[in-house]
Amino acid sequence: MDNKYVIAVLVSNISGVLSRVSGMFTRRGFNIDSLTVGETESSGFSRITISFHGDDDIKERIFQQLKKLHDVREVEVLNANETVIRELLLIKVRNKPESRQDVMTAVEIFRSKIVDYSPTALICELTGETSKIDAFIELLKPCGIMEMCRTGIVAVERGDNCLKTVK
Amino acid sequence: MIISGAKIVVETLIEQGCDTVFGYPGGQVINLFDELYIARDRVNHILTAHEQGAAHAADGYARATGKVGVVIATSGPGATNLVTGIATAFLDSVPLVAITGNVPCSLIGRDSFQEVDIVGITMPITKHNFIVKDIEELADTLRMAFKIAKSGRPGPVLVDIPKDIQLAKCEYEPKTQPVIPSPIVYAPENKLRQAVQMIDACERPYIYFGGGVIAAKAYEELTAFADRIDAPMGCSLMGLSAVPSDHPRFLGMQGMHGHFASSMAEDEADLVITLGARFSERATGNKSRFAKNFKIIHIDIDGAELGKNIPADLAVQGDIRDALERLTAMVTEKKLPEWEARIDALRLEELERTQKALEHSYAKNCESCTAHCGRSDVPASKKLTPYEIIDAVSEHAPDDAIIVTDVGQHQMWTAQRFPLRKPRTFLTSGGLGTMGFGMGAAIGASAATGKRTILFTGDGSFGMNLNELATAVTQNTPLVVVILNNGVLGMVRQLQTLFFSKHYSNTTLGRKTDFVKLAEAFGAKGAHCSDTAELEAALTAAFAENGTFVIDCVIDCNEFVLPMLPPGGSIDNIITEIK
User: Fold this and answer.
1) For residue B578, what pLDDT band results from cuts at 50, 70 and 90?
2) What pLDDT is stored for residue B247 in this prediction?
3) What whole-number distance in Å separates Cα of residue B399 and Cα of residue B394?
4) Residue A167: its pLDDT value, please?
5) Which residues on chain B are in Cβ contact (under 8 Å) with A64?
6) Is the bond preceding B25 in cis, omega lying within 30 degrees of 0?
7) Shortest CB distance from B307 goes to which of A16, A60, A67?
8) What residues contact residue B358 under an 8 Å CB cut-off, 6+ apart?
9) Which residues pair with B21 in a beta bridge?
10) What local confidence, expressed as pLDDT, does residue B365 receive?
11) Residue B157's closest chain A neighbor by CA?
12) Triad B76, B79, B85: Cα angle to 5°
C-alpha cells in the first residue's frame, strides 16, 4: 500500500544535522518527496518536515532510524487528517497580452498574489496544500512558465498537540 | 587547571578508564602524541604498521573485553585508513572511539595538505561523530563520545579535532569516574506477557541468538531460559561464544554455512525466539521462504532492528538480560520429549552428513592436486583437512585462548568447528566481512587481556594486513597465526565452482610467498606443515613460544565450506555434500 506520509523531526540546531538526517534516507534507500528545515521558537532546535511515500513498513523503519540519530530529539509521523499542511510557491510566467487574463483568473480563483509585475514577466505567490499548488501550476502551464520554486511542505498538528514542549 | 587541548584529550581518555590506545602519529596529531609521551606511564599507546591495523586492534580490544576501544590517527590518509576498521566495528556493534587530527580550523575547506572531511566520510558508518571547533567543548565531547559508544546498542564514534584546538588552552576539570551509559531500556511488561502466551502455547521452540546476547552479558540468563522452556539454541556468527560450544542445548551457528541440525531445527520449529540478532540475509537465506513455518518473537535493544529484515509476530524492544530473566520467571516450565527426540535425530543426521562430506573430501581423494596448492610429495591420505587443523589447534589451545579469524572459508570452518569455551573468545568480522581484520584484532585482543591469541586466517586474508606482524613482534604478542593456505581465494572460488562453470576468475593467487621466511623476516617464528605429523610439531613449537608464531598449513584448494545454502536459496536447497 503506497501512502503519503509527513514526518516532523525536532533536531538540535548544530552543523551537519541536515546531512545526518538526509544521509540516513540515502543510505537506507528511502525516498524523500520534500524536505524543509527551519529554526523554531527555541534557538537550540530546528524543525525538519519530511514527506515521503511508501508502505506502513517503510514508514515504521524511517521513524525508528530517525529516532536513533543522536541529534534528533523528537520524531512524529503526523496524521494527515489532524494536520495543517502548507507549501509556498513562487512562479514566474510570461506577461503576454493574450494570456494575461488567464493568469489573472487563475490568481483570483486560487487566492494567489502577484508579487512582481514587469512588462515581460510576472511572479505569482501561492500558499496551500501540495495538491492545490500542483493544480495551479497545471493551470499556468499554457501561459508559459519561465521558472518556479516551491518550498516543500511544512506541517503543524491541529489543536494543542505539539511535537514537543520546548522550554 | 588550564591545559592544552592535546593534554585534555589524553587526560579525558585516562579519566574514561582507557589504559591502552592504538594509533599512528602524523602532522596533525603531533601535539597529541607529545602528551601521550608525557603520560606514557598512565596510558599505553600501541603503534601499528598501518592505521587500519590500529582500528582493528582497538576493535579487538573492545570485543575481547566489552570496554570501549580507542584509536588515534592523523588527518587525511591517516583518517581514511581508519574507515574500513570503523565500518567493521559499526556493522558488528563494537564500542569504539576514533580520534582524528585535522588541519587547523582556518584551513578547513581549502583542500589543505592532508585534509579530508572525515566527519562527512564516516557519517554513515558511525553511531555519531563530532568535529570539535571550540576548545571549551573538547572534554565534554570526548565524554559524550564514550557515552554514545557504550550506550544501548554499542558502536563506533569518531571525534575529529583540528590542530588549533589541540594547541588552544582552557580550564579542565577531571571527572572522578567514567561516563555512565544511558539508562537501560526495559522490555514493556505487556509485551513480555504476550511473549509468555506464545511460549506457553508453542510445542517446538527454538532460540536464535546473536551478538546482542554478548553485548548484554546475558549468558547465564540465556541458558536458564532455554532450560526452562526445553528449547534448543542456535546462533548467528556474531552470537558464537555466548554459550560453550559443547552446551547440550546448543546446535551451533545456523544460516548460510551453519550447522545442518541448527538450520533444520529452526525451520521445523513453531516458535523462534530471536535475541539480539538482525536476521541478516546470511542467516535467513531467501526471505520469502524463511519463517514460513514458525512464529517469531524478536527481542532487541535497538528498536530499529525490529521488523527491519524479517517481520516479527511479536517485537519487543528492551535489554535482553533483563527480558530473559523476567521471561524465565513468568513462563510455565516445559518438557518437550518429542521435540527433544527430533533434535537428537537431527544431530545424528548432521553427524552422518558431515562424515560423508569428509569422506568425499577432495584432499583425501585427489592424489594429483598440485595445480595451485598442495605438495605433490604428500600422499592424499595424509593431507591436512581444515577440520583436522582446527581440531589439532583446539587441543593445544588453553581454555581461555582468544580465537580470532579473518574472512573467508577458514572463518566459516573455524566458526563451525572450534570448541569455544568462554564468552568473548571468538572475534570475527561478521557484518562487514573484512578480510584483513584478524591481525589487528588479534593484537588488540591480546593487548587487552594478556591472553594467548590464535588467529585463523587464509593466504588471501593474511595478505591484506600481514604488515601487522611487525606490530605483533614489537609487542611480543603471544599469537599463533594459523594460515589455511590453499593458494586461492577459496570462498569466491567455491561459488565459481558451483555457479560460474568453474571460471576461476582472479581467485587463483599463484603467489610464491614463503610465509615462514616472511615471519622470520618480521622477527617472528614459523613453520610449514602439510601433514598431521608436521602440524603436531609446529603446534608444539608454537605454543611453547611466548611471542608470535606463524604456521603455514597447506590445504587443498578444492575444499568446500559445507553445509551451504546457495546465494538467494533457502533451507530447501541446503547442500551438505559435493561429489
Assistant:
1) confident
2) 98
3) 9
4) 44
5) 303-304, 306, 308
6) no
7) A60
8) B364, B385, B387
9) B45
10) 61
11) A70
12) 150
Name the residue among B120, B124, B307 with its Cβ closest to that of A57: B307
What average pLDDT does range A27-36 have in this prediction?
95
Binned at pLDDT 50, 70 and 90, residue A12 comes out as very high
B/e letters for B359-392, b = 16+ CB within 10 Å, e = fewer, are eebbbeeeeebeebbbeeebebeebbbbbbbbeb
Q: Which domains does chain B have, with CATH numbers?
A: 2-171 (3.40.50.970), 189-348 (3.40.50.1220), 367-558 (3.40.50.970)
Is the pLDDT higher at B357 or at A112? A112
Nearest CA in chain B to A14: B130
For residue B373, name the pLDDT band (cuts at 50, 70, 90): low
Reported as a single tens digit per residue, the pLDDT across B201-215 is: 999 999 999 999 999
Is the alpha carbon torsion for B429, B434, B440, B443 positive or negative?
positive
Give the domain ranges of chain A: 3-78, 84-154
Q: What is the 3-state secondary structure (H, E, C) of A124-165?
A: EEEEECHHHHHHHHHHHHHHHEEEEEECCCEEEECCCCCCCC
Query: How many inter-chain contacts (A to B, CB under 8 Å) are there?
Result: 32
Asked whether B549 and B452 are in contact (CB, 8 A), the reply is no
Q: What is the C-alpha separation between A119 and B193, in angstroms, rounded?
A: 73
Common-topology check for domains A3-78 and A84-154: yes
Taking an 8 Å cut-off on Cβ atoms, the answer to whether A67 and B123 are in contact is: no
For residue B311, the chain A residue with the least C-alpha distance is: A57
The single-letter DSSP state of residue B381 is G
Compute the distance between CA of residue B310 and CA of residue B127 in angstroms, rounded to an integer. Answer: 23
Do B469 and B502 form a contact (C-beta atoms < 8 A)?
A: no
Question: What is this model's ipTM?
Answer: 0.90
Sort residue B531 into left (φ over 0), alpha (ψ -120 to 50) or beta: beta
Mutate to test the interface with B, among A60, A66, A67 (most CBs of B within 10 A): A60
Query: Residue B304: which of A20, A57, A64 has the nearest Cβ?
Result: A64
Residues A51 and A129: their CA atoms lie apart, in Å, by: 12
Q: Which residues of B are catalytic?
A: 51, 113-114, 163, 491
Assigned CATH topology for domain A3-78 = Alpha-Beta Plaits (3.30.70)
**3.40.50.300, 1.10.10.10, 3.30.160.390, 3.30.70.1150: CATH of A84-154:** 3.30.70.1150
